[in-house]
Amino acid sequence: MSDHKTMTLTLIVWRQKGPSDPGKFETYAAKNITEHHSFLEMLDCVNEDMILEGKEPIVFDHDCREGICGMCSQVVNGLPHGGQDRTTVCQLHMRKFKDGDTIYIEPWRARAFPIIKDLVVDRAALDTIIQAGGYTSCHTGGVPDANSILIPKPIAEEATDAAECIGCGACVAGCPNGAAMLFTGAKVSQLAILPQGKAEAAARVTAMTTAMTECGFGNCTNHYECQASCPKGINVKFIARMNREFLKAQFA
Amino acid sequence: MILDGKCPTGPIEKSWDKHCFDLKLVNPSNKRKYNIIMVGTGLAGGAAAASLGELGYNVQAFCYQDSPRRAHSIAAQGGINAAKNYPSDGDSILRLMYDTIKGGDFRAREADVWRLSQVSNNIIDQCVAQGVPFARDYAGYLDNRSFGGAQVSRTFYSRGLTGQQLLLGAYSALSRQIKAGTVQMYTRREMLDLVVVDGVARGITVRNLITGEIESHAADAVCLATGGYVNVFYLSTNAKGCSVTANWKAAKKGAFFANPCYTQIHPTCIPQAGEYQSKLTLMSESLRNDGRIWVPKKKEDIGKLPAQIAEADRDYYLERKYPSYGNLAPRDIASRSAKEACDAGLGVGPGGRGVYLDFADSIKRLSEDTIRERYGNLFEMYEKITDENGYKRPMRIYPAPHYCMGGLWVDYNLMSNIPGLFVLGEANFSVHGANRLGASALMQGLSDGYFVIPYTIGGYLVTVKPGAVKADHAEFKKSVEDVNASTKKLLSIKGKRTVTEFHRELGKVMWNDVGMARSKESLTDAIKKIPKIREEFWNNVKVGGTGAELNQQLENAGRVADFLEFGELLARDALHREESCGGHFRVEHQLPDGEAMRNDADFSYVGAWEFKGNDKEPELHKEPLKFETIHLAVRSYK
User: Fold this and answer.
1) Does one domain contain both B412 and B533?
2) DSSP state of A139
3) Smallest CA–CA separation between B158 and chain A, in Å?
4) Do A134 and A234 have their domain in common?
5) Which of B380, B456, B516, B545 could form a disulfide with B551 if both were Cys (CB 3.0 to 4.6 A apart)?
6) Are the C-beta atoms of A14 and A41 separated by less than 8 Å?
7) Per-residue pLDDT reduced to its tens digit, B352-399
8) Cα atoms in the 13 Å half-sphere on the side-chain side of B226
9) Global confidence as pTM
């Protein structure tokens, strides 16, 4: 496993100095890449070479590099996170590519995510949606014993399915409408499914969908690109659930 | 100086309640007059900022990521301990305390650990109320699993995503307070200095990572919840942005750094594949519940496929050496045993750096579906990285730096020796002693954040006049000048080696000489090598771009510069501690069977170091440890 032939790849990368710069694609070569390099390690290698040559390295967001923090955000060959099933770009490995491939790398593109520099975008709008109501209004302390409200396994599991969202924004980047409905729907559903969240369900869905619209996100027209892009495989049924909660809230 | 932890006296069972009663309170209408700075928004910082905001204080919270939801607490997989005793298997607050003290090899404070164990139960209640989806049974009750170092099932979990779910719970509470206006959130900011005025912590200097602007923030108290420092080893399971910088800046302003040599090497990580590797990935040690660890008995079997190695030719070394705990022996023991097997030439995979973690027996006993239900995401993660199917052939694992028990010294109120500077979570040294048990990091972060600091900080704030020092004070200006000067210097070197090259070089020294097995020779050697790397760094590092923009090279350079100073302190602490305990293993101090040999007569103390300048030796201050509830004993897991 330490053997390895190496690959040479052509990278066509979006470079943009700042929010007001028009930005353009630049071409680079990635050399001596093995199949065990992660995609970001491949970019590290390219950047190291560029630093030594006195060029400005490609700026990209990343942190945990194990697919859970949601910081990394690149569109690879037109697909958020590179299109491997349930995989963030930091967990994508170069064995999915072959020697001589050309790879296009772009930032998330959506009206609600202004580009900061190169592949780094501003995703504060996702925090704004959560701040609008993505919580239960419990106080620190003064809550009942954890087993006092029973939650049968299938319900806990369904809530967990929704709660797995890492807030990376791939769903928005993948959506032709730049919608954040999968992101919002996942949080609305998680808390609507659980008894602890039911009391505020109507107010929550109203506030969160309003924030979503105000932040400049689009609406869902059932392309399901969000689910296909989601590195955690969050199901579009949570959008349906959010729509149902939204309708219910109108009569509440 | 002999340090006083200011722990409450009297019966341990009443110690925290009594202390809470003794603490002076801040009048509700006065709380809004106080400003509190919270640096870091992981489990400890996020929970603390939310709770303090809810109490009515004005909180300014800072994180280097683009959102407070991304702190590395999120990567914890396995679970969180609590003494609920839901399974009725003999657990209690006292037993959780006992296990934690023993697991930490008798190098933690009893009172702090009692408090942690006591509030552990409140944490579970709190998280459930927030909508954290813990694992449940069909009747709706919470489920528990076992973890290393315990003989009861007290670990609550949410698939392999417990850290994520708990962090998102804290983040949701924090978001609610941001919306309410009690917490002002500053993302993409990195703390580059602590501002101390007349010996009291009064604020911080931060860099706006997007614009490069250096900002001053003043407050009545500063809390650091800035995580751990094991990226000093370069390769670790921490996120790339994790650094010692905030803690080290505080240390350079006079905060004592306690027990830096207590680092934890986690036994179940995916082995390194190549030189280019940027980080190591951990798989929850809960895998050790159902996986059996082994290496081939004979060297000639090493190249073979694991399935071709007969049962009789496999050495299940943890089961052999520790029959009562077996594969669930504590982390330090499991890690060191793996290293011993590999050092003996029995390791598997690239470079012989790996041991097998085999699920074949459990799959036979329970079915592949059950294993998938329990650990599916971990098997998926393993396959993504290694391209191997863990259900079909044993996984390969190897230890990796993962967590630090050491951190800034704090008293029982979580206040450092600098008045007004509080330290929470992994960033402090307080409860894990020389080794942390699994599922206890999340417990400590949330304990400090939800249930300790909201009480103890009040006891300090009532003694200070709110808003006494503003951000236009001369010390703030001086701090900004210092930060600017350091930035300018880094950018002006224009050398020939990248920041990462230096970090990798430091990491190799730390791993080889200050890693799992340390000796007087290796440590002395490291103390000679590190200043040389540091010197070359300041003469030959290449950092491009400017300070007035998003510049990741510059961010990284600052962090590595601090590691290059701190790494030396870590080695010095390891050299001074002439004993083996928990994660600190000195080859000179071991029992005939290779177990760690503590020296309670001479080293039953917290070693807290005072920075005296890079060219001077740091000064050691001691806080003696007393064991009145749990009796000192040789730690045995046989």
Assistant:
1) no
2) P
3) 8
4) yes
5) B545
6) no
7) 989 999 999 999 999 999 999 888 888 998 999 999 999 999 999 999
8) 30
9) 0.97
